Amino acid sequence: MSKLEVLTPENSQLIFIDHQPQMAFGVQSMDRQTLKNNTVALAKAARIFDIPTTITTVETESFSGHTYPELLDVFPDAPLLERTSMNSWDDQKVRDALAKGAAQGRKKIVVSGLWTEVCNLTFALSALHDTDYEIYMVADASGGTTAEAHKYAMDRMVQAGVVPVTWQQVLLEWQRNWARKDTYDATIALVQEHSGAYGMGVDYAYTMVHKAPSRTQHGGETQAPVPA
Questions:
Q1: In 3D, which of 180, 183, 191, 179 has the Cα closest to residue 215?
Q2: Half-sphere exposure of 199 toward its Cβ, with a 13 Å CA cutoff?
């Protein structure tokens, strides 16, 4: 395994750490709705490519609240690995879940979590210290309590060997080739739904240039301009 090898559906697995309301309330490093959009988009990408995914939570009932419903809707049957430790690596269930994927050659661990400077950082450093896993930190699907907290945590992790990525980067590495038709339509649909200007551009090109039908069927009439 080498960091020069791109992410593929065969060499990757994914972990979501503490995407819970109380943790999100504390995020100040980026817009929280954008953070949720990116997190859910990453989850949908994993579903498209059948990426083994671990969801771990901390102090759900006593402090953090329940995992985003939108995230659970993507993985309705996934177990939620509850912890007391801020560092997910301290919980044996988490280690076992990742080891199962690693035994299949999935040693590139893609990480999305809250907060960057605590739960993401400690997990990444511990996993790197104890294993031969590679850690890919999804910077725009993770958030810190301040912009500085997020930035310096990312800097510290990069210095330790963590690879910084974005959710869309991960998606497109997994797709890699537009000739892969088995995942093409789902990937494009995800881009249209979650990728902002990129998705709007795809919609525009499909409908205005290629004259494809709109993704939605509008039942109402379109009324012509009427000068006042």
A1: 191
A2: 15
Average pLDDT rounded to a whole number, residues 143-172: 98
HEC per residue, the chain: CCCCCCCCCCCEEEEEECCCHHHHHCCCCCCHHHHHHHHHHHHHHHHHCCCCEEEEEECHHHHHCCCCHHHHHHCCCCCEEEECCCCHHHCHHHHHHHHHHHCCCCCEEEEEEECHHHHHHHHHHHHHHHCCCEEEEEHHHCECCCHHHHHHHHHHHHHHCCEEECHHHHHHHHHCCCCCHHHHHHHHHHHHHHCCHHHHHHHHHHHHHCCCCCCCCCCCCCCCCCCC
Measured between alpha carbons, how far is 77 from 80 in angstroms, rounded to an integer? 9
Q: What is the pLDDT of residue 221?
A: 93
Cis omega (within 30 of 0) for bond into 115:
yes
Confidence of residue 217 (pLDDT cuts 50, 70, 90): confident
Q: What is the pLDDT of residues 121-130, one digit of tens each?
A: 999 999 999 9
Q: For residue 54, list its beta bridge partners.
A: 15
